[in-house]
Amino acid sequence: MSANKVIDFNKFEGPVFSGRSRGEELREFIHLDQMEKQSSHISVIIPEDTYSVTSSFFLGLFAPSVRNAGTREAFYEKFNFEAPDFIMEDFEGYIARALTENTSFH
Amino acid sequence: MHLAKINVPLYIRNKRFTKLNNWLRRKKKKNLKVSDRNAIIAEQGNYSKIVEMIALNCFSGTVKTFGKTAYFKAPKVFSIIKNPEESLLEIGRLAAQCIQADNIDKVQLDFSAVVEMDLSANAILDLLVEEIDAYGKKQGKKIKGKKIHWEGSYPASPELKRFIKAIGVIKFLDVKHEKVKHLESKRLRVFEASCKHYVRVVRPQMRNKVNKVTADFADHIDDCLKTVKKKLTKRGRSNLCKYVAEILDNAEQHSGMYHWAIQGYLDTSAEDLICEIVIFNFGESISDRFLSLKKDDYTFGRIAPYVLRHGNYIYNGEMRRADLYTLIALQQSVSTKNLNNASTRGNGTYDLIQFFDLMYQAFTQGASSEVRPVMKLLSGSSQILFDGTYEMRINPTTKLGEIAFNKDNDLTKRPDPTYVNGFKKVKLPGTCLSIKFPLPSKASVPVSA
To answer: What is the ipTM of this complex?
Structure first.
């Protein structure tokens, strides 16, 4: 595997990152599937002036990566985030959601 | 040497030829525009689909028409939160008159009886008025001198009059001589954005309309809070953006139409500082989407036991299937777009309800106003009221958020019919989310949510 790759959100137009389709399209645009196979560590930089990253966007972009990792710890081992604290708090919930399976309503 | 100096007749002939060609080109372009417009009118009819949708869903039967004049009389309480059925009925009556009568050329809007009005009723009326006026202008181009004349009467209350001028029909019709005065407008915080069938930006590195409108809306709310010397924290702004963006994204993805609007309003000269928000979209309602699920769809399989459990209430007419579907759609992880157990859609409404619960806690502490935060979800003919009585809670078994609208928060038990119910006579052709919350007057009340 090659050296660290960087996903820099400064290159994408914010300050709001929302929409599952935008997340999915961005995943394709930056070839994240390929990046994951080729790199042992990926840095993700989210600027301080970001207003929000929604769960739909995050899951569109990272849900396959979270599921590939299998656990929260393995995901953070692979992806190193540099983001404001309030964004990182949200990401904890999104990662948990990606790892939770749906059940029926009885 | 210039042709005019060496061969004057040739020069003049060339000039006349160029002039004639330009004139023919302009005429052809104009004829194309007229034929395109006629083709659109032939395809879509004399009125927009929006007007038709409102007429068909909000008003049944025939309506009395008065020649080429349509009348709208707003009820005393013109509010989606407090009086949705009557408010929608009157809006539907206006739309029905436009459809039934031939070539309406005058509309009278009578707000004189109104003593209470909310932003959501206003927003739906605004959208209808805009559609009627736009089609009047299109017709006007075909028939010289014809356009729709608008007349109306204001409510008696100066606050409501200011409201109509600032964000009501006066603003949407751009009636310059009736607009709110400059000094008055400085005391208002108004936000309005809408989207109609735009072409989605296909470059994911660029922001789309939802992203932009969400950020602008967060700035508007911050502006509202500045009036009480407060500010959104970064956490609060993030939460607000999350919830607004999720609602707008849901509207685009699930309704089948790209036609939504978001409005915000705060009158700082009013006695009670009440911040109002409405997010509205046309298209399929929540229950429509669930009713169209096939029996082998994954989501149908997940929710079928819930609907079956309440089958007796449906059978006895105490509850309606549509209302149950609307309620189940609010639960975390429920989405018609989920395909299997690993699908991760269905967080938007959970986030929204969480946000409202947090806002309720934040804005009821120390608030001098008797007004409590309230939110109403109206989709199709179903409505659900949030006023802090029932909260979203995490199910310890599934670890997912659930709100059942009963004291045990148990989805196996019947939801409170005062909070989850529907209409028989009217149906909104879309989904409307109305929120009203008081701003705290005391500076010590924390605003972060």
So the answer is: 0.90
Which residue pairs from A71-74 have beta carbons closer than 8 angstroms and sit at least 24 positions apart in sequence? A71/A99, A72/A96, A72/A99
pLDDT tens per residue, range B200-239: 666 888 888 899 999 999 999 888 888 878 888 888 888 8
Cα gap B50→B128, rounded to integer Å: 7
Q: B299-340: per-residue pLDDT in tens?
A: 666 777 777 777 777 767 777 888 888 888 888 776 666 555
| Chain A residues near residue B204 by CB distance under 8 angstroms | 12, 22-23, 25-26, 28-29
- B333 at interface of A, judged by CB pairs closer than 8 A: yes
* Contact residues, chain B, for A48 at CB < 8 Å: none
Helix or strand (DSSP H, E) at B382: strand B382-386
Please list, residue by residue across A2-27, b when 16 or more beta carbons sit within 10 angstroms of its beta carbon and e when fewer do: eeebebebeebbbbbbbbbbbbbbbb
Could B234 and A59 be called an inter-chain contact, meaning their C-beta atoms sit closer than 8 Å? no
* CB–CB contact A12 B204 (8 Å): yes
CA distance A48 to chain B (A): 10
Strands lying side by side in the sheet with A79-82: A5-8, A42-45, A79-82
State whether residue B398 is helix, strand or coil.
Answer: coil
Q: Are the C-beta atoms of residues B406 and B413 closer than 8 Å to each other?
A: yes
* 385-424 in chain B: CB under 8 A from chain A: 398-400, 411-412
- How far A9 CA sits from the closest chain B CA (Å)? 9
Q: In chain A, what residues touch B242 (CB-CB under 8 Å)? A: 18, 52, 54-55, 90
- Judged by DSSP in three states, B81 sits in coil
Neighbouring-strand partners of residue B261: B194, B280
User: Residue B271 pLDDT > 50, yes or no?
Assistant: yes
Find residues 123-182 of chain B whose CB sits inside 8 Å of chain A. none
Give Cα B435 to chain centroid, integer Å: 12
B52 alpha-carbon distance from chain centroid: 16
Answer whether B289's CB lies under 8 Å from B254's CB. yes
Distance to chain B for A77, nearest Cα, Å: 22
Asked if residue A32 has pLDDT above 90, the reply is: yes
Cα angle B289, B295, B298 (rounded to 5 degrees) comes to 75
B75, B294, B342, B345, B410 from B253: Cα distances, Å: 34, 19, 20, 12, 29
- Which SS3 state, helix, strand or coil, does residue B189 take? strand
Rounded (5°) CA angle B428-B432-B435: 145
